[in-house]
Specification:
By secondary structure, the protein is of the alpha/beta class. The chain contains 16 helices and 20 strands. The protein has 3 domains: 215 residues, TIM Barrel; 120 residues, 3-Layer(aba) Sandwich (Rossmann fold); 136 residues, NAD(P)-binding Rossmann-like Domain (Rossmann fold), CATH 3.40.50.720.
Length: 501
């Protein structure tokens, strides 16, 4: 079950939004009294309420907005109990002073906005002594391992326990806590009105991640990277899973480069069956794999990990997806898709660039590498026995195909381009692996110069479809995935225009 938090300054506003949520299928709503400008009228808020409620009035020390006295705050909580609210949230330090009454259930809560303490079990043990119906322990995730510790605590509890982590690293626990026994999770009315760091909107939790459908049998998948908030992979994969009727969920996992191996081991304990891998982990993730596909081993970078035979199999879908995308562009510009002997420049030397470069060299193309970091670029060029040109001189080379494998031009830095417009020639094919936005500044300039172009969406959909088939064993709905991604990018552009206008 999802508890939707409502915090408004006026009685009429909170009551109207409560009604709207009920009409849209919400089952439980948290009324945040500390947001209200005037003294809350408990009777008015609870009379004819359209759903069960959790009544909460959070102190400023707990990152709430209550401006009155502590006696006044506790009086409101007692009024809510007397009025028969389904749940009242009582902080651990005051729970002993507010007795049980009637049918109202007591949520005894603990919040830590700084860290996930090492003594979670001790905190939980002492909270069981405070006559709780539900224990709520919410902490800040400073590492992916914090999620595992909190969820393992929830699973081991004999008392119903709501437990998850806050912050961007805590998303996985907000979505998976029900699988481990949490009676509900919390979500905001909308993404713009989050009431705790990293809180997701009710629509995201319900529709994108299908929280209420997740069971012990649900396959858990995810994408690892840092940053990860911009990734469209969760939208794309979850839409495809829903379309194909597959019992699985796909989550965004922000994992810093430091401690990657330990983080993956901790997440594996939560039951993950596969990971997509993005910046900056495509090379370092190879150390975690117990089995590596031969071609991927040559590339030295992986964008896919799949649980296999008790270990982790690493492969790379970037390489074949990139070749397919380039051939699509060549076919559109003249029909000749042969790569043998074609002069191709790759911008970048990271994980994606390694995969694309290896695939093109194996296809017989004459590849030139350029990169902002000279050492990294020269190392890749020497490894592939191909040409290197300094970043400053990249516009001098006469090439037939230009491939951008850098993140330059990616949202939100949409006004940047890795290649100056006056360097482009009308006989070039320009392929930008950036997919968000679909129409990057590089592609815009290329079209204005008369170049043939291929957007990153072509490669992104193809590599994702290959991952989907490895994760699920079923064909990917590629057309539906393409439509989903284009609609999401279009909606994002509309939001930007609205904000600017």
């Amino acid at each position: 079950m999802i508890c939707v938090s409502l915090g408004r300054t006026r009685h009429s506003s909170i009551m109207e939004e409560h009604r709207v949520l009920a009409e849209r299928g919400a089952e439980l709503v948290e009324l945040r009294l500390d947001f209200m400008r005037k003294r809350p009228d408990i009777g008015r808020l609870l009379q004819n309420r359209p759903t069960p409620v959790v009544v909460t009035c959070r102190r400023r020390v707990d990152r709430g907005r209550w401006a009155g006295t502590e006696d006044q705050r506790q009086l409101l909580l007692r009024e809510a109990i007397i009025a028969g609210a389904e749940y009242v949230d009582i902080e651990e330090d005051i729970a002993g002073g507010i007795p049980r009454y009637g049918s109202t259930k007591r949520i005894v809560s603990y919040h830590n906005f700084d860290e996930t303490p090492l003594d979670l079990q001790e905190i939980h043990r002492r909270m069981t002594q405070l006559d709780p119906d539900v224990i709520k322990i919410v902490t800040m995730a400073n590492s992916p391992a914090d999620n595992a510790r909190v969820l393992q605590m929830v699973q081991a509890s004999q008392v119903p326990t709501v437990g998850f982590c806050m912050g961007e690293m805590g998303t996985v626990s907000r979505i998976l806590c029900g699988r481990f026994g949490s009676p509900f999770t919390y979500a905001s009315f909308s993404r713009e009105r989050e009431m705790a760091p990293g809180q997701l909107s009710w629509i995201e939790v319900r529709n994108l991640y299908r929280f209420s459908k997740i069971t012990r049998d649900t396959k858990i998948l995810g994408v690892i990277g840092d940053p990860i908030a911009h990734s469209r992979s969760p939208l794309l994969h979850n839409a495809a899973l829903r379309r194909q009727g597959i019992d699985a969920v796909y989550l965004p996992l922000r994992i810093p480069a430091e401690g990657l191996q330990d983080s993956l081991r901790e997440l594996a304990q939560l039951g993950f069956a596969g990971f997509s891998v993005t910046i900056p982990h495509k090379e370092s993730v190879m150390e975690f794999a117990t089995e590596v596909e031969a071609e991927t081993d040559l590339i030295g970078a992986s964008n896919t990990l799949v649980r296999r035979n008790g270990g982790w199999f690493a492969t790379n879908t970037d390489a074949p997806a990139a070749l397919d995308a380039i051939r699509v562009g060549l076919q559109g510009s003249g029909g000749v898709t042969e790569l043998q002997g074609r002069r191709i420049m790759i911008l970048g030397a990271g994980g994606a660039a390694r995969a694309v470069a290896h695939a093109l060299v194996r296809a017989g193309a004459a590849v030139t590498i350029t990169n902002r970091s000279r050492n990294r670029g020269k190392t890749l060029a020497e490894e592939l026995n191909c040409q290197y040109v300094s970043w400053e001189n990249r516009g001098v080379e006469q090439v037939e195909v230009l491939v951008n494998c850098t993140p330059i031009g990616m949202h939100p830095n949409v006004d940047a381009t890795p290649f100056e417009e006056h360097w482009l020639r009308d006989d070039m094919l320009v392929f930008d692996t950036v997919y968000n936005p679909e129409q990057t500044l590089l592609l815009k300039h290329a079209r204005e110069r008369g170049c043939s172009t291929v957007g990153g969406i072509e490669m992104f959909i193809r590599q994702a479809a290959m991952q989907f088939e490895m994760f699920t064993g079923q064909p990917a709905p590629m057309d539906y995935m393409m439509e989903t991604l284009r609609q999401a990018n279009s909606a994002a552009r509309m939001v930007v225009k609205t904000d600017e206008g």
